[in-house]
Amino acid sequence: MKKLLIIALVLLPFFSFAQSAMQPYLTLEDAKRISDAAESRAKQDNWTVVIVVMDASGNLISLRKVDGTQIGSIEVAQAKAKSAALFKRSTKVFQDAVVANPGVLSLPNVAAIEGGLPIFKDGVIVGSIGVSGVTSAQDGIIADAGVKAY
Amino acid sequence: MKKLLIIALVLLPFFSFAQSAMQPYLTLEDAKRISDAAESRAKQDNWTVVIVVMDASGNLISLRKVDGTQIGSIEVAQAKAKSAALFKRSTKVFQDAVVANPGVLSLPNVAAIEGGLPIFKDGVIVGSIGVSGVTSAQDGIIADAGVKAY
Amino acid sequence: MKKLLIIALVLLPFFSFAQSAMQPYLTLEDAKRISDAAESRAKQDNWTVVIVVMDASGNLISLRKVDGTQIGSIEVAQAKAKSAALFKRSTKVFQDAVVANPGVLSLPNVAAIEGGLPIFKDGVIVGSIGVSGVTSAQDGIIADAGVKAY
Amino acid sequence: MKKLLIIALVLLPFFSFAQSAMQPYLTLEDAKRISDAAESRAKQDNWTVVIVVMDASGNLISLRKVDGTQIGSIEVAQAKAKSAALFKRSTKVFQDAVVANPGVLSLPNVAAIEGGLPIFKDGVIVGSIGVSGVTSAQDGIIADAGVKAY
After folding, report:
1. Chain A interface residues facing chain C, Cβ-Cβ under 8 Å?
2. Using a CB-CB distance cutoff of 8 angstroms, which residues of chain B are in contact with residue A64?
3. Is the pLDDT of residue C68 over 60?
4. What is the rounded average pLDDT of the residues B28-34?
5. Rounded to whole angstroms, how far apart are CA atoms A2 and D89?
6. Separation between Cα atoms, residue D150 and residue D146, nearest integer Å
7. CB atoms A59 and B67 under 8 Å
8. What is the ipTM of this complex?
9. Reported confidence tier of residue D13, pLDDT bands at 50, 70, 90
10. CA distance to partner chain D, nearest, from residue B9 (Å)
11. 3-class SS at A62?
12. What is the pLDDT of residues A112-138, one digit of tens each?
């Protein structure tokens, strides 16, 4: 019995080692639920937008473009989502920062307009949402509705 | 006789509306139905893929990435869909053409691998589907299932 | 009564055609007329410019470069036209917006200088004009002359 | 009198030397005439194409897209014209070359498909024409009609 306990204690670090290099990630089902919530929020006010969900590396998991949304928003929504994922922060933070510090605009993958939000699980980044199509403040409201559905 | 004249006058605006420079397009609902059909076909064989639906100009309307799909397929599926939309043909046509005519590989926006299909309405291009993740022949089967749902 | 039924049956296909997912678009003839008007306005003051007309997705329909125009304007005129089409607004709006909100400069396909104008038909975007070569205010005057010819 | 003639003959090479750092170039009027001829040839067979005329550096002077032409041809026609201008040869030469020598495909600005032709004046390159939309052989016929109008 004592032997078994010793074995268990000796094995423990290996078990936890084997289990340690893990990270949470967004599934397609997560992305659909997030997008559905964002799309519902947008439709509530007849806002036409593109809704993007990305993984923690800024890779697309889901994109949908509501009919009538300006074409330019397809790339803008992706830029916002990528920026939020790669820098783990709301793109609103960059929007505010560039006023005093325009040099931020020279950084790759920075989209300095509200509408991109990171998505965390237990403090770990798992992805992001990016919304574009209406005003940046409205884009932000839609993005927030999406994050809340996660 | 007078009645016919009235009918003609009533019909006139509809005729002229119908005859003006108008073209059909894919809606988000169309894109979702197409994507759902493609995703169902993929799941039937546990194939992990990215499914993209674009408009006639090669702009994204919808993208979804099934869990576990290789990251490279996110851009490949878009490249296939764009190629099929911009050149109004299956990317399989390019795949076959480059064997005798390798110069095709030098053309912008040509993806010369099966898995991209144009979508037509009454002979007019309205968009395309692009699939990537498994073998190109399997990608093609999934894309075909998507088109059939339109 | 029977006659009305026949009329209704005759009308039906035109109604459904008119109501399906259709959108207006610019023809090459439209683009030539728009470009001719813009070119005439430019020549009136011996202004050397590039004049671009694009479709609603920011694809080129027509481009012409007046002799002696600076080479840089070839791409600038396209950037303005693309921005106006993709965001359905005058590039002057962006030029003004970036003063208070410099983050706009980080958005893909935004050209924040006057000289790009969207073109609408019955409230639906059909394309755009982009002009570059002289001062941005003068570019704007030429672009406006083009739009008025549509 | 005879002396004057001798002086003139002696001076002639110096005059031409003084005038030598000059090169001919295509005007917008040239480009329109070339494009009109190409467009007429295309319409003769109801071929839908994009017609591009560039200067000797591969910069756009003129572009026009016939209604209904596949969107992909907008960039392909430019790629062909640029290739013909930058390498002073028909893109058909590259199309043939890549069969034995596929490495040509790795070179920047090479479009290895018929439909791009250089335009010369007195043996000096002044620009090029690029056509895309139908088969590459048909594109070539249209491009040729354009060059002949110069």
Report:
1. 70-72, 75-76, 79, 94-95, 98-99, 102, 105, 110-113
2. 28, 31-32, 61-63
3. yes
4. 98
5. 86
6. 7
7. no
8. 0.87
9. low
10. 30
11. strand
12. 999 999 999 999 999 999 999 999 999
pTM: 0.88
Tokens of D124: 């000096």
- Residues in CB range of D38: below 8 A, 6 or more apart: D49, D51, D129, D131, D142, D143, D145, D146, D149
Checking DSSP bridges between strand A50-55 and strand A124-132, what pairing results, if any?
antiparallel
Say if the Cβ atoms of D27 and C74 lie within 8 Å.
Answer: no
Architecture of domain C24-149: 2-Layer Sandwich (3.30)
- Is the CB of B60 less than 8 angstroms away from the CB of A63? yes
Contacts of A60 in chain B (CB under 8 A): 50, 63, 65, 74
Tens-place pLDDT, residues D51-73? 999 999 999 999 999 999 999 99
Q: Do chains D and B touch (3 or more CB pairs under 8 A)?
A: yes
Q: How far is CA C3 from CA A80, B59, C7, C8, in A?
A: 59, 46, 6, 9
Q: How far apart are the first and last CA of chain A?
A: 45
Q: Which residues of C touch B3 (CB under 8 A)?
A: 3
Average confidence (pLDDT) over A64-93: 98
pLDDT value at D44 more than 90: yes
Instruction: Look over chain C and give the mean of its residue pLDDT values, rounded to a whole number.
Output: 90
- Give strand ranges (E) for chain A: 50-55, 60-65, 116-121, 124-132
Name the residue facing C65 among D60, D64, D67 (closest C-beta).
D60
Tell me how close the Cα of B105 comes to any Cα of chain A, in angstroms.
26
Q: Which residues of B touch A27 (CB under 8 A)?
A: 67
Interface contact B25-C23, CB threshold 8 A: yes
Residue of C nearest to A72 (CA): C86
pLDDT of residue A10: 56
Chain A partners within 8 Å of C56 (Cβ): 71
At A21 the pLDDT is 85
**CA atoms of A82 and C107, how far apart (whole Å):** 12
Q: Is C71 helix (H, G, I), strand (E, B) or coil?
A: coil
Contacts of B101 in chain D (CB under 8 A): 95, 113
Instruction: Answer yes or no: is pLDDT of C43 > 50.
Output: yes
Instruction: Look at B61 and A64 and tell me if their CB atoms are within 8 Å.
Output: yes
For residues C6 and C138, the model is more confident at C138
- D129: Cβ contacts below 8 Å, ≥ 6 apart: D34, D38, D51, D52, D53, D54, D81, D84, D116, D117, D119, D143, D146, D147
Which long-range contacts does C118-126 make (Cβ < 8 Å, 24+ apart)? C118/C84, C118/C85, C118/C87, C118/C88, C118/C89, C118/C90, C119/C26, C119/C34, C119/C147, C119/C150, C121/C24, C122/C24, C124/C23, C124/C24, C125/A70, C125/C56, C125/C85, C125/C88, C126/C24, C126/C25, C126/C26, C126/C55, C126/C56
C-beta separation of C34 from C63 below 8 A: no
pLDDT given at position D108: 97
Q: Given an 8 Å threshold on Cβ–Cβ distance, is B11 in contact with C15?
A: no
Q: Number of B:C CB contacts under 8 A? A: 44
The mean pLDDT value for A51-58 works out to 98
Please, what's the b/e burial string for B134-143 (b: 16 or more CB within 10 A of its CB; e: otherwise)?
bebebbbbbb
